[in-house]
Amino acid sequence: MTVPRTATIAALFAMLASACVPAPEAAPAIAAPGAAASASFAAMASEDADLERAKAAATAFSTQLRGTLQAAVAEGGPTAAIGVCSTDAPRIADAVMAEHDLHLGRVALPGRNRNPAQAADNWQLATLQRFQQAVAGGAAAGEQLSVTRDGLPAGVSLRMMRGIATEPGCPACHGKHVAPDVRDAIALRYPDDGATGFDIGDLRGALWVEVPTRIATPTGGNP
Ligand code: HEC
User: Fold this and answer.
1) Domain spans of the chain?
2) Which residues pair with 206 in a beta bridge?
């Protein structure tokens, strides 16, 4: 009985709005190109469709993970939520990837990952660096967005990254003064944890989405 649950949980709820994940954003509107379905319009429409899919998947992932975490924190406090984060985050990612037919995940800033599988890849490093520079210059971490359509490997149509901000509840598990029982629970699962020491407002990492190229239909008969 070392953790004062009620106050902690209330605070965690406020911030767990995006625990482990960034907040969703408003659904963007997309204009259909009407009757003039020229080849270039069709190409533009399909590019926008890729971005829509990427954003929808990112939001689905954020929302589902957030809900799961909120429930876990309410039930067992932050220590229990660590287990949920560890097992449910990948499960939710898998389900969203299957449903939206794309790849997504979260990465940490270089050297600051908790799960070694979430260390940034080469393609993610430059974007993370740009996000970091923007945040150092006063921009909001959670508003960083990068969309890449050119120069991608074969089979990849679009890549999107969105900044993940450190918010008021995150320091319970990612801050400078993590409670001893939480720290122990983290160390047990993640002996090489590099994901503490964050202040509110800091860039924690990014959510990434990779949309695969669609197989083109031979005749342009699709709507
Ligand atoms: C209850 C403890 C807890 C809280 C609170 C928490 N996290 Fe985490 N976080 C974790 C754990 C555990 C992992 C590793 C999950 C895994 O193995 O995929 C993690 C992983 C992450 C990752 C993936 C990169 C990495 O280092 O593995 C990001 C990004 C992240 N958290 C951001 C946040 C943000 C932002 C908040 C606050 C809004 C937050 N977390 C709150 C426990 C927590």
Assistant:
1) 5-21+41-212
2) 107, 163
Q: Spell out the SS3 assignment of 33-100.
A: CCCCCCHHHHHHHHHHHHHHHHHHHHHHHHHHHHHHHHHHHHHHHHHHHHHHHHHHHHHHHHHHHHHH
**pLDDT tens, per residue, the chain with 223 residues:** 343 443 443 344 344 434 444 333 333 333 333 444 455 666 667 679 999 999 999 999 988 988 888 888 888 888 989 987 888 999 999 999 999 999 999 999 999 999 999 999 999 999 999 999 999 999 999 999 999 999 999 999 999 999 999 988 788 899 999 999 999 999 999 999 999 999 999 999 999 999 999 876 555 445 4
CA 218 to chain centre: 35
Pocket of ligand 1 (CB under 6 A): 15, 18-20, 78, 81-82, 85-86, 89-90, 106, 108, 113-115, 118, 164, 166-167, 169-170, 172-174, 195, 204-205
Closest residue by Cα to atom 32, ligand 1, is: 20
Q: Which amino acid is at 60?
A: A
Beta partners for residue 158, in sequence order: 211
- Distance of alpha carbon 75 from alpha carbon 73, whole angstroms: 5
